[in-house]
UniProtKB/TrEMBL annotation:
Organism in which the protein naturally occurs: Kushneria phosphatilytica
Matching InterPro entries: FAS1_dom_sf (IPR036378), FAS1_domain (IPR000782)
Lineage: superkingdom: Bacteria
Database matches in Pfam families: Fasciclin
SUPFAM superfamilies: FAS1 domain (SSF82153)
Protein name: Fasciclin domain-containing protein
PROSITE patterns in the record: FAS1 (PS50213)
Length: 169
């Protein structure tokens, strides 16, 4: 075998190895290894939500849930709130209220949007009902637009919301 043949054979083998390695990295089980909060961090549009999770010490409880649907308000949703209301919500003396707000965004089962729409009304971790419906081309939950699936991991699903849902008093 000539040097040129060996080199061509080696390059073809390296290319095939690279292709197989890339395909393995895209297998569903590999992408599902991260938590929903890791997916929110990686997305980069959930800093306020992640801050709320940290400040209420909800991260450990969330990490222990194995089938969850997380409806996370985007940074734009938090920034659209009245600044005084947002500051009050994040104040130290309102931690219980902030925890209620976060728990309203958690469903303790893994639901696709189609499943949620078929059911129509789903209970949140906070206890209040979440109403899923279609409005035009959009899916809404309690009037907030769902921005589609951000992540589907072994832990569940993460969806973005364009509004912060507030529990009824």
């Amino acid at each position: 075998m000539s040097m040129w043949s060996v080199r061509r054979h080696y390059c073809r083998g390296a290319w095939l190895f690279g292709l197989l390695l890339s395909m393995l990295m895209l297998l569903p089980g590999q992408a599902e290894a991260q938590s929903l909060l890791d997916a929110a961090r990686a997305d980069g549009h959930y800093h306020w939500f992640l801050r709320a999770v940290r400040e209420t010490e909800l991260e450990k409880a969330l990490s222990q849930l194995s089938a969850v649907t997380l409806l996370a308000p985007t940074d734009a949703a938090f920034e659209a709130m009245d600044e005084e209301e947002r500051s009050k919500l994040f104040s130290l003396r309102n931690r219980d209220r902030l925890l209620d707000v976060l728990n309203l965004h958690i469903i303790e089962r893994d639901l696709s949007l189609n499943q949620a729409l078929q059911i129509g009304m789903v209970g949140s971790r906070q206890g209040q009902a979440l109403h899923f419906e279609t409005r035009g081309d959009s899916v809404t939950v309690n009037g907030a637009k769902v921005d589609g699936a951000i992540a589907h991991t072994a832990q569940g699903r993460l969806y973005g919301l364009n509004q912060v849902l507030l529990p009824s008093l």
